Amino acid sequence: MVDYSAYSRLSVRVSDRLATVVLNRPDQRNAIDHAMHVELARVWVDLAEDPEVFAVLLTGAGDVFSVGGNVRGMLERPGGDVAPDGQPFEPGGARRIIYNLLDLDKPVVCALNGHAVGLGATIALCTDITVMSSAAKIADTHVKVGLVAGDGGAALWPLLVGPARAKEMLMLGTLLTGEQAERLGLVNHVVEPDEVVPTATRIARELADGPTWAIRWTKLSVNKWLKQQVNLVFDTSMALEMATFHTADHREAVTAFLEKRRPEFTGR
After folding, report:
1. Which residues of the chain form beta strands (DSSP E)?
2. Where does the UniProt annotation place the signal sequence (predicted)?
3. What is the pLDDT of residues 90-141, one digit of tens each?
4. Residue pLDDT, tens place only, 202-251
């Protein structure tokens, strides 16, 4: 069994062939800081190598799945060159999160127990089956803070809802309810809030106890198609996201967000 005790931003527990991974910063609404970036890239590799894990359940602590990036920290990394905790900012970290998750052959079921925004939404949509709370909302809101939807959103949303709808939602940062997300094919199931984790657990348990190699290799086959699209889009969108960190509009968007006012964009 792999030792998961070193994880601080994630809680990982393995029981009876099922690993439960929890984004564990409830006091920060599971915002993904630099340390969580690192752990989210590594955990999929550890789970892949753990012979006791046959399926994974992913969820968030508290009443939010993840609000995505640390907006307050963005002001502390001018130009996107420094991570919110002062560590060197390395854009390849987001790439490893997405690619390592897509490379994991074991099935991953996501219990969207609350709002999923930005990178939080992208991670949820990279999993294999999503069960969403009827009280939750999901969106890629990069544009709301003056950034390109670069860490997977520009690749995944068109695959799931089609290019026209994806462009509208990504360019406006549209918040979708569970009912809307299910109708558009963004998520698999929408249930009452108290049924999210039990429903997702039942599905994950069925996968953990199913025909192992048939399940894993079916996932790998479908993910070849997903990875082809990610390969086509990801590096360009990520580079453009890094470029938007240097814009005045990004700085204005973050400042306005923190000051709880409407931003005034200048196109610079």
Report:
1. 10-15, 18-23, 55-60, 108-112, 116-117, 129-133, 137-139, 176-177, 189-191
2. none
3. 556 788 999 999 999 999 999 999 999 999 999 999 999 999 999 999 999 9
4. 999 999 999 999 999 999 999 999 999 999 999 999 999 999 999 999 99
Please report, to the nearest 10 degrees, the dihedral formed by the alpha carbons of residues 241, 245, 251, 256 taken in order.
Answer: 30
What one-letter code names the amino acid at 88? P
Q: Which domains does the chain have, with CATH numbers?
A: 10-194+208-259 (3.90.226.10)
CA atoms of 197 and 203, how far apart (whole Å): 10
Residues 198-207: b if buried by 16+ CB within 10 A, e if exposed: ebbbebbbeb
Residue with the two structure tokens 């939750």? 136
